[in-house]
Amino acid sequence: xxxxxxxxxxxxxxxxxxxxYIMEITEEGYLLQVYYGERLESFEQRLVYPRIDRSSFSPxxxxxxxxxxxxxxVLQECPGYDTGDYREGMVDITxxxxxxxxxxxxxxxQITKGKKKLTGLPATYTDTEEEAESLEIVxxxxxxxxxxxxxYTLFKNHSVMTKSARYVNCGTATISLNKAxxxxxxxxxxxxxxxxxxxxxxxxxxxxxxxxxQGQHVLNSKRGASGVTQQPFLALASPETTExxxxxxxxxxxxxxxxxxxxxxxxxxxxxxxxxINEFNFCWQLESGADFQTPEVVMVYSNExxxxxxxxFHHLYRKHLARGRYRDEERPVxxxxxxxxxFDFDEEKxxxxxxxxxxxxxxxxxxxxxxxxxRHSDTTSLGDWIENKEKLPDGLLGLSEKVQKQQLKxxxxxxxxxxxEESELFRAHPDWHLHVEGYPTSLGRNQLILDFSRxxxxxxxxxxxxxxxxxxxxxYIKWDMNRNMTEVGSQGRLPKQQQETAHRYxxxxxxxxxxxxxxxxxxxxxxCSGGGGRFDPGMCYYMPQSWAxxxxxxxERLKIQxxxxxxxxxxxTCAQLSDSPNHQIGRSTDMDTRALVxxxxxxxxxxxxxxxxxxxxxxxxxxxxxxxxxxxxxxxxSFYRLENPYTGNYGSWMFVDEERKHAVVMVFxxxxxxxxxxxxxxxxxxxxxxxxxxxxxxxxxxxxMNFGLYLGQRLTGDFTALKLEIRAVxxxx
Length: 733
Ligand code: DGJ
Hints:
The chain is α+β, with helices and mostly antiparallel strands. Helices cover about 20% and strands about 30% of the residues. It contains twelve helices and 39 strands.
């Protein structure tokens, strides 16, 4: 593996055991994209393509007049602006003279071991320098005094590369970055299908796959958060690619704010992928000598289908994105009081739930919304992080001690980025929220957003949080965020810098999370935004698990968790067993099915135990015991999707341990059918030459993966589920 530069060929070649990424510098200094795909030993062809026959509508750079070379048609690594490439570019900069033309040429490069941190931003990391190699390529537009430093990291043991860019103002005057994207990739063809995950609240990450057509496909968020409506992810798969085989190139943006991901198929049927911070509500004043670092993009190449892609994402995110004590530690089974009490609770009610939870083996109790200020509904008190003594007479400290006496850990819900108009904080600081002076501010869930781009605001909230965390033994925090940005203005910021607010907010949030996670390394943080509204790799850097959706209906969750698993491993994805009929959609589902869906990820409960029969409580205790005994496998094993609930009547998946000796398969039937075809399921991830005991039979891994396993007629009824355990055995004759 390694990054090589060939002087003779003027070619950069990044390659490991899985893929090659090749770029070339033309004689005139343009950095062109050559190849991204299956590993190649070398690449010898010269870039003769594409040259155009008639150039008047695709202009030539001045020094290449009438050469047939046009930036409009070549595959570029960092396309500029207004210099002949009419596709969308990576930059849009206003220079002091008011114009924007930008064209970048090669200046130099540097190869280093390991991977450097990106200042102030979350990013993938390595534990040792041997795990990766990095390349910096400096491009410049000398006339404009602009340098763009392209950063690449090649991971050794994964089919993963990361890309980002740093924009440096080497000129003498301030320039305005209207758009400064993180990466561009140009592919020489367009025979791809676009995989994306649009969604909505409680219907997050709905997998879609469509053919590409000429023109632009835009996936984005302008919400001030990565948002519920689109995950900052896209993949380009060959049409024949399935879960099990075929090529796919995937892109995931490590950022939690406004983003843009564009795929453009041009008139020559070439495909451009652009990823970066959205230009909406963004304009950065870059002073002379200053630089601007963009967030990074994780790129995964797989020629082993979508499951192959996910394996690389999962391993990378588990080991090179999640941090801290809980990166490698098993996560506790929790119970959260939200759907049991909503805002209507007192200590007695909570302790009843805690006692009942302790009896069935729950390890962590999470006190959700409603414990502070005058918070009896969602109209008040955000920003006043002081316990309500009517509800909790002995305060959080007293409650936590009582919870711990019952041998449970104690966790707390917070929504630190928000403020209610009806709060002490708002009365003291009526200008601390994002707003435009003299202009009405839209409300979302009756709340406003604190201006985290301002240091004094962050510090005041931090002071309130540390006052709790220094006093109360808290093992877990659920960090919620329940509305998106509007009227994004920051009091006191210069008019010309107002358009920096949305990004500065995210930088402020990251700074605060860095501080908190460093100061309280033993707290397990769970990321939440009304469910999965900000479940992105940026947040996963600070918080090793996320609440995937407010929708706890098992059948809806099949789809949400299926898509989530494209990128995030089960340990990062929280799922909870809840009551039936389901509170979000009203569906009634059998408890086994609900439990199996929830146990397919980072398992917990959000249910009213008081209303359960002895029989039901026994069952729940058994699920918990089973999960605890198998959680190493579920949380840290390899996860494979087997059947797609979006396209068929079944959803199924399996978990395989590292030694490939133990596996668990879960199969879910959505609707019952008469005279249905015989059900057979082909497994994945086993060792073909190992024999496994399953359902009283001894079968080879090869048979289970190639022929499959007959399931018979056991799945009868709507919304039913099945769990199979598979263990390696010595072959009996
Ligand atoms: C939204 C979260 O997703 C819920 O689980 C719950 O914590 C509520 N917020 C509380 O307001």
